[in-house]
Amino acid sequence: MLICKIKEKLLKNNLFDVHQIYLPNNSNKIVGEKMISSFLPSNYSADKAIISSEPQHRSAYYKWCIKNNISVFADKPLTVFKKDGCVYEDYIFFEKMMKGSKINFIISCERRSHKGYNYISDYLKKIISKYKVPITHISIHHAGGNCITGNEILKRENHPFKHGYGILYHTGYHYIDLLANLLILNKILLPDFMKKYELNANSISSIEQNNIFSNINESSVSKFKKHINNSLNTSYGEYDLTSCGVFYSNGQPVTTISLTLLGNSLSLRKSSKDNYYKALEGRLRQEKIIIHLGNICSIHINSLPLKKINNDKFENFDITILNHTSILNEKSIISLDRNDLSIINKDLPLNQSMNRNSRVWQLKKFLENKKTNSEYETHKESIKLLKKLNSALNKND
């Protein structure tokens, strides 16, 4: 945890009075509030904290910050489950704890301030409001390209699998939150939307990733084979997950969804050094979102790792909108690429990652005590959805 005292004079020059706290993230010893205080000078005061520790240890940090009126900027997810529904219960607990408090509590989710997704959200609001047609389908496909070995699955604390949870609580929350915020747009027409929905989910355990190279005879993968670990068990977290569902309004089905979260996809990892941080080497993120509004509009979003594969100068992010022009007073095809989004958004440099731009923007707004688009209270539907997905997975265990 990093805590700081913000002073207006210093803020203008990006300087802060900062104190860093490194506490033992040992899975056998949950961090306590008294331990946090013991790491601070007795006369130290702060008004903001940045929390990005392993999620199962965060509750103590949150309690300590809320009790001491310190605003929080936290990495996603809020916490992780130990039993079904635990994360949503945590959300309600801290919501009650903050009642009457003036602190800001931000759960950072970069696609909430992402210039490409902001464009899509604004376009959807316009079409839904003007033409009274809801979103009828959303498909989200994320492939993380995160190649890890059996030994790393056993040891790693950075996005761990050994504690019983996996991609759903790692990168997955970004896409659960994206899905929830797209679905919420249907409330423009249907106020009771998202009160009733059904989800199914299936997953493949991270232990299967342990054997991914076992049948490949190429010499280039022999260095990975030696890291296969036969002591892994089925209690380890999910590596790949797929879900489908139906969302209702007034008892009638309105929107179908499909959500795919994969760790096991194309990676350019070359090193087999047994270090769980090295798993990020060669990581390739593939992202594809399709949104349909009945027969009148379809939206395709593609983000591929071409920059990493081809050493391209700029990242790949493309939007294609297809419209029924006999019904909609819109262009039949709207196409935007990464360059177009920088032309539209003057504060988005062409050579900057859009996700990084969003993260920096959120943190800056937090430090300035301004709205970040990711305030605590706006995550309720996302965390409900996370709980439902977790329940659906448990049914199939």
Would you give an account of this structure?
- With 397 residues, this protein is an alpha+beta fold.
- The chain folds into 2 domains: 2-108, Rossmann fold; 111-352, Dihydrodipicolinate Reductase, domain 2, CATH 3.30.360.
- Helix content is 29%, strand content 21%.
- The protein contains 13 helices and 13 strands.
- The chain has helices spanning 8-11, 33-38, 58-67, 86-97, 115-131, 150-155, 172-183, 206-209, 222-225, 306-310, 338-344, 354-367, 380-395, and strands at residues 2-5, 17-20, 48-51, 71-75, 105-108, 137-143, 197-205, 238-249, 252-262, 286-293, 297-303, 318-323, 333-336.
- The protein has an 8-stranded mixed β-sheet with strand order 7-8-9-6-10-11-12-13. Strands 2-1-3-4-5 form a 5-stranded mixed β-sheet, with helices on both faces.
- α4 packs antiparallel against α13 (380-395) and α7 packs across α13.
- The longest helix has 17 residues, at 115-131.
- The radius of gyration is 22 Å and the shape is globular.
